[in-house]
Amino acid sequence: MKKTLARWLDSDVGHSFRNSPMAIAAAVIAFICVFSAAFAGWIAPHNPYDLATLELSDARLPPAWMAEGSRKYLLGTDDQGRDIVSALMYGARVSLVVGFVSVLLSMLMGVTLGLLAGFRGGWVDAFLMRLCDVVLSFPAILVALLIAGVGRALFPDAHNTVAFGVLILAISLTKWVDYARTVRGSTLVERNKEYVQAARVTGVSPLRIMRKHVLPNVMGPVFVISTVQVATAIITEATLSFLGVGVPSTSPSLGTLISNGNQFLFSGEWWSIVFPGAALVLIALSVNLLGDWLRDAMNPRLH
Protein backbone atom coordinates (compact mmCIF):
# COMPACT_ATOMS: atom_id res chain seq x y z
CA MET A 1 0.00 0.00 0.00
CA LYS A 2 2.80 2.41 0.91
CA LYS A 3 4.73 1.53 -2.25
CA THR A 4 1.65 2.11 -4.39
CA LEU A 5 1.05 5.50 -2.77
CA ALA A 6 4.72 6.42 -3.20
CA ARG A 7 4.64 5.51 -6.90
CA TRP A 8 1.49 7.56 -7.38
CA LEU A 9 3.00 10.60 -5.66
CA ASP A 10 6.06 10.32 -7.91
CA SER A 11 3.94 10.16 -11.07
CA ASP A 12 2.97 13.19 -13.15
CA VAL A 13 -0.52 13.25 -11.67
CA GLY A 14 0.82 12.90 -8.13
CA HIS A 15 3.36 15.67 -8.70
CA SER A 16 0.57 17.90 -10.00
CA PHE A 17 -1.50 17.11 -6.91
CA ARG A 18 1.33 17.88 -4.49
CA ASN A 19 1.90 21.25 -6.15
CA SER A 20 -1.76 22.31 -6.22
CA PRO A 21 -2.98 23.81 -2.91
CA MET A 22 -6.50 24.02 -4.30
CA ALA A 23 -6.56 20.31 -5.13
CA ILE A 24 -5.19 19.40 -1.70
CA ALA A 25 -7.77 21.58 0.07
CA ALA A 26 -10.58 20.12 -2.05
CA ALA A 27 -9.37 16.58 -1.36
CA VAL A 28 -9.27 17.24 2.40
CA ILE A 29 -12.81 18.65 2.38
CA ALA A 30 -14.09 15.78 0.24
CA PHE A 31 -12.39 13.24 2.52
CA ILE A 32 -13.94 14.79 5.64
CA CYS A 33 -17.38 14.74 4.04
CA VAL A 34 -17.07 11.14 2.84
CA PHE A 35 -15.56 9.95 6.14
CA SER A 36 -18.29 11.66 8.20
CA ALA A 37 -21.00 10.19 6.00
CA ALA A 38 -19.53 6.68 5.89
CA PHE A 39 -19.05 6.46 9.67
CA ALA A 40 -22.06 8.52 10.72
CA GLY A 41 -23.34 5.66 12.85
CA TRP A 42 -20.19 5.82 15.00
CA ILE A 43 -19.20 9.49 15.08
CA ALA A 44 -22.56 11.29 14.92
CA PRO A 45 -23.57 12.75 18.31
CA HIS A 46 -27.13 11.43 17.93
CA ASN A 47 -29.17 9.19 15.68
CA PRO A 48 -31.64 11.71 14.25
CA TYR A 49 -33.84 9.01 12.78
CA ASP A 50 -34.26 6.89 15.91
CA LEU A 51 -37.70 7.99 17.11
CA ALA A 52 -37.04 6.63 20.61
CA THR A 53 -34.26 9.17 21.17
CA LEU A 54 -36.05 12.27 19.88
CA GLU A 55 -37.38 14.85 22.32
CA LEU A 56 -39.98 17.28 21.01
CA SER A 57 -39.09 19.66 23.83
CA ASP A 58 -35.75 20.20 22.05
CA ALA A 59 -37.39 21.07 18.74
CA ARG A 60 -36.40 24.24 16.86
CA LEU A 61 -33.43 25.06 19.06
CA PRO A 62 -30.98 27.55 17.49
CA PRO A 63 -27.22 26.86 17.18
CA ALA A 64 -25.21 26.57 20.40
CA TRP A 65 -23.67 30.05 20.13
CA MET A 66 -27.07 31.80 20.12
CA ALA A 67 -28.96 32.88 23.23
CA GLU A 68 -31.45 30.01 23.35
CA GLY A 69 -29.04 27.41 21.99
CA SER A 70 -27.80 24.30 23.76
CA ARG A 71 -24.31 22.84 23.86
CA LYS A 72 -25.90 19.47 23.23
CA TYR A 73 -26.84 20.58 19.69
CA LEU A 74 -23.99 22.47 18.03
CA LEU A 75 -25.92 23.57 14.93
CA GLY A 76 -29.37 23.48 16.49
CA THR A 77 -32.33 21.20 15.87
CA ASP A 78 -35.20 20.95 13.40
CA ASP A 79 -38.95 20.91 14.02
CA GLN A 80 -38.83 17.31 15.29
CA GLY A 81 -35.92 17.80 17.67
CA ARG A 82 -33.33 16.15 15.41
CA ASP A 83 -29.73 17.28 15.77
CA ILE A 84 -28.67 19.17 12.62
CA VAL A 85 -25.05 17.95 12.80
CA SER A 86 -26.12 14.31 12.99
CA ALA A 87 -28.77 14.80 10.31
CA LEU A 88 -26.14 16.25 7.98
CA MET A 89 -23.90 13.20 8.43
CA TYR A 90 -26.70 10.74 7.80
CA GLY A 91 -28.11 12.84 4.96
CA ALA A 92 -24.74 13.18 3.22
CA ARG A 93 -24.36 9.39 3.31
CA VAL A 94 -27.55 8.88 1.30
CA SER A 95 -26.71 11.67 -1.14
CA LEU A 96 -23.18 10.37 -1.72
CA VAL A 97 -24.33 6.78 -2.24
CA VAL A 98 -26.97 7.86 -4.76
CA GLY A 99 -24.44 10.11 -6.50
CA PHE A 100 -21.67 7.51 -6.76
CA VAL A 101 -23.91 4.61 -7.77
CA SER A 102 -25.76 6.62 -10.43
CA VAL A 103 -22.46 7.85 -11.90
CA LEU A 104 -21.08 4.30 -12.01
CA LEU A 105 -24.23 3.07 -13.75
CA SER A 106 -24.29 5.91 -16.27
CA MET A 107 -20.54 5.46 -16.90
CA LEU A 108 -21.02 1.74 -17.58
CA MET A 109 -23.89 2.45 -19.94
CA GLY A 110 -22.25 5.38 -21.74
CA VAL A 111 -18.81 3.77 -22.14
CA THR A 112 -20.33 0.56 -23.52
CA LEU A 113 -22.53 2.32 -26.06
CA GLY A 114 -19.85 4.85 -27.03
CA LEU A 115 -17.25 2.11 -27.55
CA LEU A 116 -19.69 0.10 -29.65
CA ALA A 117 -20.69 3.12 -31.75
CA GLY A 118 -17.13 4.24 -32.42
CA PHE A 119 -15.73 0.78 -33.18
CA ARG A 120 -18.56 -0.61 -35.30
CA GLY A 121 -19.56 2.58 -37.11
CA GLY A 122 -22.23 2.41 -39.81
CA TRP A 123 -25.87 2.21 -38.82
CA VAL A 124 -24.99 1.31 -35.22
CA ASP A 125 -23.06 4.55 -34.83
CA ALA A 126 -25.79 6.58 -36.55
CA PHE A 127 -28.57 5.08 -34.41
CA LEU A 128 -26.77 5.56 -31.09
CA MET A 129 -25.73 9.13 -31.88
CA ARG A 130 -29.28 10.07 -32.88
CA LEU A 131 -30.43 8.53 -29.61
CA CYS A 132 -27.92 10.77 -27.81
CA ASP A 133 -29.30 13.78 -29.68
CA VAL A 134 -32.83 12.91 -28.57
CA VAL A 135 -31.76 12.59 -24.92
CA LEU A 136 -29.82 15.87 -25.08
CA SER A 137 -32.86 17.68 -26.49
CA PHE A 138 -34.64 17.32 -23.12
CA PRO A 139 -33.46 19.08 -19.94
CA ALA A 140 -31.74 16.52 -17.72
CA ILE A 141 -33.64 17.51 -14.57
CA LEU A 142 -36.95 17.27 -16.46
CA VAL A 143 -36.19 13.73 -17.65
CA ALA A 144 -35.09 12.69 -14.17
CA LEU A 145 -38.19 14.30 -12.67
CA LEU A 146 -40.42 12.46 -15.16
CA ILE A 147 -38.82 9.06 -14.55
CA ALA A 148 -38.78 9.48 -10.78
CA GLY A 149 -42.38 10.72 -10.78
CA VAL A 150 -43.60 7.81 -12.91
CA GLY A 151 -41.70 5.38 -10.69
CA ARG A 152 -43.28 6.81 -7.56
CA ALA A 153 -46.72 6.67 -9.20
CA LEU A 154 -46.31 3.03 -10.27
CA PHE A 155 -44.93 1.95 -6.89
CA PRO A 156 -46.62 4.23 -4.34
CA ASP A 157 -46.17 1.80 -1.46
CA ALA A 158 -42.82 0.44 -2.54
CA HIS A 159 -40.03 -0.30 -0.10
CA ASN A 160 -37.29 2.31 0.26
CA THR A 161 -34.92 0.11 -1.74
CA VAL A 162 -37.21 0.32 -4.79
CA ALA A 163 -37.51 4.09 -4.37
CA PHE A 164 -33.72 4.43 -4.26
CA GLY A 165 -33.43 2.22 -7.34
CA VAL A 166 -35.89 4.37 -9.29
CA LEU A 167 -34.02 7.52 -8.25
CA ILE A 168 -30.63 6.11 -9.28
CA LEU A 169 -32.06 4.94 -12.61
CA ALA A 170 -33.61 8.36 -13.24
CA ILE A 171 -30.28 10.13 -12.71
CA SER A 172 -28.29 7.54 -14.67
CA LEU A 173 -30.49 7.76 -17.77
CA THR A 174 -29.77 11.49 -18.04
CA LYS A 175 -25.98 11.30 -17.57
CA TRP A 176 -24.79 8.50 -19.89
CA VAL A 177 -24.75 10.65 -23.04
CA ASP A 178 -21.61 12.57 -22.06
CA TYR A 179 -19.67 9.33 -21.66
CA ALA A 180 -21.02 7.87 -24.92
CA ARG A 181 -20.09 10.88 -27.05
CA THR A 182 -16.65 11.24 -25.48
CA VAL A 183 -15.75 7.54 -25.77
CA ARG A 184 -17.12 7.38 -29.29
CA GLY A 185 -14.87 10.23 -30.43
CA SER A 186 -11.80 8.68 -28.81
CA THR A 187 -12.63 5.25 -30.27
CA LEU A 188 -12.87 6.67 -33.79
CA VAL A 189 -9.25 7.79 -33.40
CA GLU A 190 -7.98 4.62 -31.74
CA ARG A 191 -9.58 2.10 -34.12
CA ASN A 192 -7.41 3.25 -37.03
CA LYS A 193 -4.11 3.01 -35.17
CA GLU A 194 -1.52 0.36 -35.95
CA TYR A 195 -1.94 -1.70 -32.79
CA VAL A 196 -5.64 -2.22 -33.56
CA GLN A 197 -4.89 -3.14 -37.18
CA ALA A 198 -2.22 -5.59 -35.99
CA ALA A 199 -4.69 -7.22 -33.61
CA ARG A 200 -7.20 -7.63 -36.45
CA VAL A 201 -4.61 -9.20 -38.73
CA THR A 202 -3.65 -11.74 -36.07
CA GLY A 203 -7.28 -12.85 -35.80
CA VAL A 204 -8.24 -11.28 -32.49
CA SER A 205 -12.03 -11.02 -32.15
CA PRO A 206 -13.60 -7.52 -32.33
CA LEU A 207 -15.00 -7.87 -28.81
CA ARG A 208 -11.55 -8.67 -27.40
CA ILE A 209 -10.00 -5.77 -29.33
CA MET A 210 -12.54 -3.36 -27.88
CA ARG A 211 -12.16 -4.72 -24.36
CA LYS A 212 -8.43 -5.34 -24.17
CA HIS A 213 -6.92 -2.80 -26.56
CA VAL A 214 -9.23 0.14 -27.24
CA LEU A 215 -11.00 0.52 -23.89
CA PRO A 216 -7.89 1.16 -21.73
CA ASN A 217 -6.80 3.92 -24.13
CA VAL A 218 -10.09 5.84 -24.04
CA MET A 219 -10.69 5.82 -20.27
CA GLY A 220 -8.67 8.95 -19.44
CA PRO A 221 -11.41 11.50 -20.28
CA VAL A 222 -14.01 9.20 -18.69
CA PHE A 223 -12.42 9.54 -15.24
CA VAL A 224 -12.48 13.32 -15.56
CA ILE A 225 -16.15 13.36 -16.59
CA SER A 226 -17.14 10.97 -13.80
CA THR A 227 -15.45 13.15 -11.18
CA VAL A 228 -17.42 16.20 -12.23
CA GLN A 229 -20.66 14.26 -12.66
CA VAL A 230 -20.58 12.99 -9.07
CA ALA A 231 -21.27 16.56 -7.96
CA THR A 232 -23.96 16.95 -10.63
CA ALA A 233 -25.63 13.70 -9.56
CA ILE A 234 -25.64 14.75 -5.90
CA ILE A 235 -27.22 18.10 -6.80
CA THR A 236 -29.79 16.33 -9.00
CA GLU A 237 -30.69 13.98 -6.15
CA ALA A 238 -31.08 16.94 -3.79
CA THR A 239 -33.28 18.73 -6.35
CA LEU A 240 -35.54 15.72 -6.85
CA SER A 241 -35.79 15.11 -3.10
CA PHE A 242 -36.58 18.79 -2.56
CA LEU A 243 -39.41 18.50 -5.09
CA GLY A 244 -40.74 15.39 -3.34
CA VAL A 245 -39.94 12.75 -5.98
CA GLY A 246 -36.48 11.71 -4.77
CA VAL A 247 -35.72 9.63 -1.72
CA PRO A 248 -38.66 8.97 0.63
CA SER A 249 -39.38 11.81 3.04
CA THR A 250 -38.63 9.50 5.97
CA SER A 251 -35.09 8.88 4.72
CA PRO A 252 -32.24 11.27 5.49
CA SER A 253 -30.79 13.14 2.53
CA LEU A 254 -29.52 16.65 1.98
CA GLY A 255 -32.45 17.30 -0.36
CA THR A 256 -35.08 16.27 2.20
CA LEU A 257 -33.31 18.28 4.92
CA ILE A 258 -33.38 21.38 2.72
CA SER A 259 -37.04 20.73 1.87
CA ASN A 260 -37.99 20.41 5.55
CA GLY A 261 -35.97 23.48 6.53
CA ASN A 262 -37.55 25.55 3.76
CA GLN A 263 -40.90 25.35 5.56
CA PHE A 264 -39.50 27.26 8.56
CA LEU A 265 -37.20 29.71 6.78
CA PHE A 266 -39.55 32.70 7.07
CA SER A 267 -40.22 32.02 10.75
CA GLY A 268 -36.62 32.88 11.55
CA GLU A 269 -35.32 29.31 11.92
CA TRP A 270 -32.67 29.80 9.24
CA TRP A 271 -30.33 27.08 10.56
CA SER A 272 -32.69 24.31 9.38
CA ILE A 273 -31.98 25.15 5.74
CA VAL A 274 -28.71 27.11 5.73
CA PHE A 275 -26.52 24.34 7.14
CA PRO A 276 -27.87 21.55 4.85
CA GLY A 277 -27.56 23.91 1.91
CA ALA A 278 -24.00 24.82 2.89
CA ALA A 279 -23.10 21.12 3.22
CA LEU A 280 -24.47 20.45 -0.29
CA VAL A 281 -22.49 23.37 -1.74
CA LEU A 282 -19.33 22.28 0.08
CA ILE A 283 -19.53 18.71 -1.23
CA ALA A 284 -20.31 19.79 -4.80
CA LEU A 285 -17.60 22.47 -4.78
CA SER A 286 -14.88 20.14 -3.49
CA VAL A 287 -15.73 17.46 -6.07
CA ASN A 288 -15.84 20.03 -8.89
CA LEU A 289 -12.46 21.44 -7.86
CA LEU A 290 -10.99 17.92 -7.87
CA GLY A 291 -12.48 17.37 -11.31
CA ASP A 292 -10.94 20.59 -12.63
CA TRP A 293 -7.56 19.61 -11.21
CA LEU A 294 -7.77 16.10 -12.67
CA ARG A 295 -8.67 17.50 -16.09
CA ASP A 296 -5.62 19.76 -16.08
CA ALA A 297 -3.35 17.06 -14.63
CA MET A 298 -4.27 14.57 -17.37
CA ASN A 299 -3.93 17.11 -20.19
CA PRO A 300 -0.48 16.56 -21.76
CA ARG A 301 -0.58 19.99 -23.43
CA LEU A 302 -0.35 21.67 -20.01
CA HIS A 303 2.80 19.78 -18.94
Order of H and E elements: HHHHHHHHHHHHHH
Shape: elongated
Write the CATH homologous superfamily.
Answer: MetI-like
| CATH architecture label name | Orthogonal Bundle
CATH class group: Mainly Alpha
Number of strands: 0
What's the overall average pLDDT, rounded?
83
> Span from first to last CA?
28 Å
> Helix share of residues?
over 70%
Structural class: mainly alpha
Task: Determine the number of helices (DSSP H or I, runs of at least 4 residues).
Answer: 14
Give the CATH topology. MetI-like fold
Number of domains: 1
- As a percent range, the share of strand residues is under 5%
Q: What does the radius of gyration come to? A: 23 Å
Please outline the major beta sheet.
none
Unreliable runs: none
Can you offer a commentary on this structure?
The chain is mainly alpha-helical and 303 residues long. It has a single domain (22-37, 82-302), classed as MetI-like fold (Orthogonal Bundle), CATH 1.10.3720. Helix content is 71%, strand content 0%. The protein is built from 14 helices and no strands. The protein is elongated and about 75 Å long. It starts with a helix and ends in a 6-residue tail after the last helix.
